[in-house]
Design a protein that fits this description.
This protein is an alpha/beta fold and 229 residues long. The chain has a single domain, classed as Rossmann fold (3-Layer(aba) Sandwich). It has six helices and seven strands, in the order βαβαβαβαβαβαβ. It has a seven-stranded parallel β-sheet with strand order 3-2-1-4-5-6-7, with helices on both faces. Helix 6 links the parallel strand 6 and strand 7. Helix 3 packs parallel to helix 4 and helix 4 runs parallel beside helix 5. The model has no long low-confidence stretch (mean pLDDT 93).
């Protein structure tokens, strides 16, 4: 299996890489930090998988297509799956939200998944049971205070997934969306607030959900089962 994972250096992306790692799996890991990507790649190789590293700022739309093309080339030209996992999270009340805050949130959380998917299409058409998995959020279905930009980006990602499904399923490319809750990663270190990481989803739980989304016949929308739900 040949898989491109954005945000593959830490958090959910790293956990997904390790969940998929093993003999017969080749991963292309994409993010800004080469150091983090290399560390994850080493862990993947230790588990018997193959991994290549591709540094890119997903907020730069001009950088995405070349990075995706390089990633596909490192996997022999074809892709069986793309996991659009990279994302930003931060909070601003609407009355104190600069336009550049809004623009960067949408650039990484919404525009980048579209551009990555678009650039990956030639390689996906060469894949086996090809699939795109978009990592959304419960914030794609429920609004939260101080999260106008984040919620808008994730609601948009949900809509993008549903529209891409209409376009790509006739081509044999599945499009699936996962909806994790707040997940205990380092993303909260830079966000003001009293965050209870122990009450959040574990990155490994979300990674297991993503791995299940890659399987033929999986549901289009996947959520972590919760007690009482």
């Amino acid at each position: 299996m040949r898989v491109l994972i954005t945000g593959g250096g830490r958090g959910i992306g790293r956990a997904t890489a390790l969940a998929l790692a093993g003999p017969g799996t080749s991963l292309a890991l994409m993010a800004r930090s080469k150091t983090e990507l290399e560390a994850t790649a080493q862990e993947v190789r230790a588990l018997g998988g193959e991994a290549s590293v591709h540094t890119v700022d997903l907020a730069d739309p001009c950088a995405i297509a070349p990075a995706v093309q390089a990633a596909a080339a490192s996997l022999g030209g074809g892709l069986d799956a793309v996991v659009n996992n990279a994302g930003l999270f931060d909070m601003r009340p609407i009355e104190a939200m600069p336009l550049d805050f809004w623009n960067r949130m949408l650039a990484v959380n919404l525009t980048a998944p579209m551009l990555v998917s678009q650039a990956a299409l030639p390689a996906l058409k060469l894949g086996t049971n090809p699939v795109i998995v978009n990592v959304a959020s419960v914030a794609a279905e429920t609004g939260f205070p101080g999260n106008a930009a984040y919620c808008a980006s994730k609601y948009g990602l949900k809509g993008l997934s549903e529209a891409l499904r209409c376009d790509l399923e006739p081509l044999g490319i599945a499009v699936r969306t996962v909806y994790p809750g707040a997940t205990a990663t380092t993303i909260f270190e830079a966000v003001d607030g009293d965050w209870d990481l122990a009450s959040m989803d574990a990155p490994e739980s979300v990674a297991a959900l993503i791995a299940s989304a890659l399987k033929p016949g999986a549901k289009n929308d996947l959520r972590i089962a919760r007690s009482g739900a």
